[in-house]
Each structure stands twice: as C-alpha cells, then as structure tokens.
C-alpha cells in the first residue's frame, strides 16, 4: 500500500505515509483546512464530549476543529495554547512537550487571561490525533497549572496503542504501519 485510505462518516482521504525509525511509519492526517472533514467529524465529537465549561486545543492543527466543536456546543469562545509567546501575552503559563509529529522539544504557552478563564472549570482538550499522548499530557499539565480540571480528552483519531486507552474520546482508530521489503507499507500488529 502506498497511501492509507481513511473513511470518516463517508468522507474519504488518502493519507501519505511518513517514515519514523525502525521501519515504522504513520499515516499523515491533517484536518486543518479540510472543511468537509471538519463538518463531518465535529458534530460526532461534540455529541461525545457533551457538557464542559471550556474547550482548549494546541496550536495549530486542531484550531478549526475546536472552533466548530465549540460552536456546536454553544460556547462563546475556546482557548488555544500557543507554541510561542506573543507580544500581547502577559502572566504567561507554560509547559514543555514532545510529539512524534514535531522534532525536538517544544513549549506550550497560555496568556494569563486564558489561564484565569480555566480556573475551577471543567475543561475538554481537543486534538486532531492522539498518538503517544505527549501533546495531550502537556495540555493536561498546562490546564492543571492554570487551575482547570480536565474532564474530557477528545480527538478525531487515536493512533496505535492510544486506541486502547479508556480515558480518551475518539471517532476512529488509526493504525501504525511498517515498511515492507518492496517499499510499501502494511499495518503494524501491536
């Protein structure tokens, strides 16, 4: 197989493979900018998320999805954890993050105003894909350091072993892949 065909609620996408180490690969899922896919997935995730006070995502791939979920749930706003400190930010709260889709250590930042709006609130973290959980853990730490209470963690896809977790909400499992001798890819058995 040269691409992985994903079918979410009748919306099909061909996902290219991205090689990792040890002949391991993942299918690259990018929902950012895909209005059709967001419109298909957001109502399903919103239904599963249900009652929360605040929704947060990390910059950047989950922003459009989080917007639509927030709109469906009748929220006036949602929070975006930034990957750099912006000049308008004050009273910044930050944590470190490692992810398989981003090389090296990164940091996530919340403006003090956003951090204050999390205090004592039931918070849902939204992401496009949950894989190793590193980004999710960083967002959890960020919310908790601001005094928020993470009650839901949601993503469109759970990749590899993440699909076995019982603490996340997701719409579909996304397998990991291994490279074959002929240069193709096959689903990696976990």
From TrEMBL:
Lineage top rank: taxon: Bacteria
One Pfam family linked to the record: Pribosyltran
SUPFAM superfamilies: PRTase-like
Gene Ontology molecular function terms on file: adenine phosphoribosyltransferase activity
Enzyme class: transferase
Domain Phosphoribosyltransferase: start-end pairs: 39-166
Xref: InterPro entries: PRTase-like (IPR029057), PRTase_dom (IPR000836)
Gene3D superfamilies noted in UniProt: 3.40.50.2020
Listed EC numbers: 2.4.2.7
Keyword entries, A-Z: Glycosyltransferase, Transferase
Name of this chain's protein: Adenine phosphoribosyltransferase
Lineage, top ranks: Bacteria, Bacillati, Bacillota, Clostridia, Lachnospirales
């Amino acid at each position: 197989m040269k691409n992985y065909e994903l079918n979410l609620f009748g919306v099909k996408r061909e996902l290219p493979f991205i090689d990792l180490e040890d002949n391991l690969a993942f299918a690259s899922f990018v929902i950012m900018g895909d209005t059709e896919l967001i419109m298909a997935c957001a109502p399903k995730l919103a239904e599963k998320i249900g009652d929360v006070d605040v929704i947060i995502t990390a910059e950047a791939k989950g922003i459009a999805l989080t917007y639509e979920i927030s709109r469906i749930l009748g929220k006036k706003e949602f929070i975006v954890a930034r990957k750099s400190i912006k000049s308008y930010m004050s009273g910044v709260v930050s944590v470190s993050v490692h992810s398989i889709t981003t090389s090296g250590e990164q940091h996530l930042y919340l403006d003090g105003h956003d951090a204050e709006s999390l205090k004592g609130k039931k918070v849902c973290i939204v992401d496009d894909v949950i894989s190793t959980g590193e980004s999710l853990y960083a967002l959890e730490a960020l919310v908790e350091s601001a005094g928020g209470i993470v009650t839901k963690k949601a993503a469109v896809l759970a990749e590899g072993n993440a699909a076995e977790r019982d603490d996340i909400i997701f719409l579909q499992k996304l397998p990991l892949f291994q490279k074959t001798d002929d240069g193709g890819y096959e689903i990696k058995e976990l």
